[in-house]
Structure formats: C-alpha cells, structure tokens
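Record 1 of the preview.
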Amino acid sequence: MTTSIPVTIIGAGQAGLAMSRCLTDRSIDHVVLERGEVANAWRSERWDSLRLLTPNWMTRLPHHRYEGDDPDGYMTAVEVAGFLDGYGRGAPVRTNTTVESVRSAERGFTVTTDQGVWTTRSVVVATGACGTPRRPAVADLLPSGIRQLDATGYRRPDQLDDGRVLVVGASASGAQIADELQRSGRDVLLAVGDHTRLPRTYRGMDIHWWMHRLGLLDERYDEVEDLARARRVPSLQLIGTPERRSIGLDVLHAAGVQMVGRFAGIAGSTAQFSGSLANQCASADLKLGRLLDSIDEHATATGLDTEVLAPDRPGPTDLPPGETTLDLGSISTVVWATGFRPDYPWLEPHLLDRKGAIAHDGGVMQQPGMYVLGLPFLRRRKSSFIDGVGQDAIELSEHLSGHLDAVAVGRC
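->
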C-alpha cells in the first residue's frame, strides 16, 4: 500500500514529537514513523537507575513542560517516557514501523517501510544521536571469556558476572555506570580519555542554571569558531540524583574506583593503557576553571554575589598515576561507554559524510526538503537536550514550511 502525505518524520522521541507539534501548529499534514513505541530509546536502551542530566525545570517542549512539584530534581528514564507519552498523545504516530529506505522521487521522496510505502514532499530524520554503540577495534582482541556490554545493554549491577569490571569511557554514561557498580560492591577499573569535568552544583545552584544564565546553552551553531570541534565535546560528567551529588573522577577515586588512561591496545592477555591520565585530568581541570571564572565574573557583574553562596570550587583532580598495563585475567566484564557511531543504512550515500554522519547546515540537509533534528549542537549548544530540541524544531519547521510553499508553486 502506498500513502501520500506532505511530511514524513522518522522517529517518535523528543525530536520527532517536537517537530510533529510544530507542524500541527502550522496545519501541515504529516506522519511520524517509529520502529518501536513512542520514546522507545528511553524504554529499552537505558539502565534502570538513569536520570536526566538536566533539572526538571529544563524539561520543556513546544506547548508542554514539566509541571510537577520537584523542579530542581531529575526525571528517571521511566518518567521521561511518560512525559513524552503525554506529549505525543494525539500525534499521527505509526508505531512498530521500521523504515527500510528513503529515496529521492519526482518532487519529493519515497519512504519504504515494513508496513507500506509513503510518498512525501519532505522528510525529517529525528532518530537522535544514539545510533549504534561504538566499540573500538581493540574490543575484537579481548579474550572470549570476558563478557562485553555496551552502555545501552547495561541495566543493573546484578546483571553482570562476578568479578572485576572494566568500564571504558569516563563521560556521563561511563562515570555513572562505574559509580553504580562501585556502590554495589564491585571492584571497578575506569579507563579515562577526554572528558568534561563539572560539579553538579556551584555556589548552591545547579551547574545548568549557571550555564543557562550565562547564555552558554543558547550559543548558536553559526556563532562558534570551530563547529566540528564543538560537536565532538564529550558529554558532561554529571549525574542526576535526589541529593544533587557530583560524580567527577576525584569523587569516584575516593569511593574506590581505580583509574587508568585511555584503552590503547592488547598484547596477548595484557591490556595496554595510555600514560595520558594526568594530562587528560589537567586539561579538564583547566576548562572547568575557565567556566567557574566566567560564573564568578557574571555573579559579581550582575549583583548575584549577595544572592548565591560563596565560591566553593572543587580542587584539582589529584589521582595516582594510572597503570599502563593490566592482566586481563583479572577482568570478568568490560562495559563499553565509548559513544555511538552514526547509522543510517536507509539513507542514500550522498547524504552522508565520509564518517557516515548526516551532512547538514543547522539541520537542513543537502537534499532540498530533507531535515535532521536531535543531534548534538545542531543549531544551539543544547540541541541534544529536551530543552533545546524544541527550539530547533520551531526554526526548522519554518524552513520546511517555506520549502513546501516553494514546491507548491513549482520553484523546487
């Protein structure tokens, strides 16, 4: 069966639902195709204890926001799924519909799914930034007796085999998983590469409150000098907990997590780690210091000094030199928290760059009528947050509406 419709949105997470609401506001007929259920990733690809890194007051989308009694708390994954369920109620979502291909056609596109074919004038790719978990090539060299999990496959400590655990990657996911495993009584080793150190609170306020005040989260893609680098910044080393605690390497080390440098290779039954741990920590400390300098300067300039607590800067990350080799016989499980690689097998190759990522300019793809939404720093620094994707959707829906008008009069 073939169905014709002006716009097809692929993905029913926060990005796809935000675009759907914006198109509805513009009276543009559309469909949202979702391979699972609404908010599928929040239901099936998150560990049990996961909470948002942003406070609840930042959980807002066009015409929908958090209205609970804990604005400074952090939603659980289950609560986020419920929030998006409510938001998507009434949206034209087709669940359990897997997209198999998107191909250019006369005055539009043909979207082929396992539930039928759609002809459409415009396509919005809203599948998010978490595509296929990225494992380094060294993973293939691990002894067969070591169990390997990606962060999307981890659920809880008792899921893992007995024995020591190596967590690879010290951004948000890796740091949180290492913290949870250590608190459960496991012996944990954390391999550390480039990371972004932040305290959960500073001077009594959530760090995101400060970044919002400084306008850092609203910085636009056309305002930064090196956009490619900005889009590669590691996820913030934060955790959302009721007690609003921090989760930096200093905290993890004090709790008993052993740190080593970046996982560099394997020789026989020995894992090799880079000797860059101290340098990685010094670099993260330097960047943190610059941010806190900006916060203190802003507080003084705006008179906030009298309304917030005195500066309470964390000290330098003081860790012992990490081991550069490890007998893999001591490891039972490796958890790869090494990010994601783009995965769009259903798109035409010319729409992707040499690394397989979608080529775009602020969400406008190279093919007229095609858009992408929900990627890091798509149009602003907070684009991958729930708080940022809605503003991106508003702007891109305006561009999309203009494209449809042009098609209608034959200019495209």
